[in-house]
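Sample intake sheet
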Amino acid sequence: MTSTVNDTGRSFAYGQAALIERSLKRRHAKERRFRLMGMLAVIAAIGFVVVLFSSVLARGLPAFWQATITLDVTFDPEVVDVGPPPSSRRASRRPPSRRR
C-alpha cells in the first residue's frame, strides 16, 4: 500500500513540476516580449525626438541667412507733393536739460 501512495505522490509531484516548468516558460516568453516592446518604444521615442529636432532646425535655420535687395527708386515731384527743400540753417534747439 505504501508503494501506491509513493507512486501516486511522485506522479503528482512530477505533474506539478511539469506544470510549473511550462508556466515558467510562458512567463519568461512574456517577459522577453515585454522587454522587446519596451526597447522598441524607447527607440521609437528617440526617433520621434530626432524628427522633431530636425524639423525645428530645418525650419529655423534659414533665419540665420539675410537677403538684401538694392533698388533704385525715383520719386516724380509732380506725382509726390514733397514741398520745398529744407533750409541749410540748423533748426534752433534747446540744450538738453540736466538731470539732478
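Comment: The chain has a mean pLDDT of 82. The chain has one helix and no strands.
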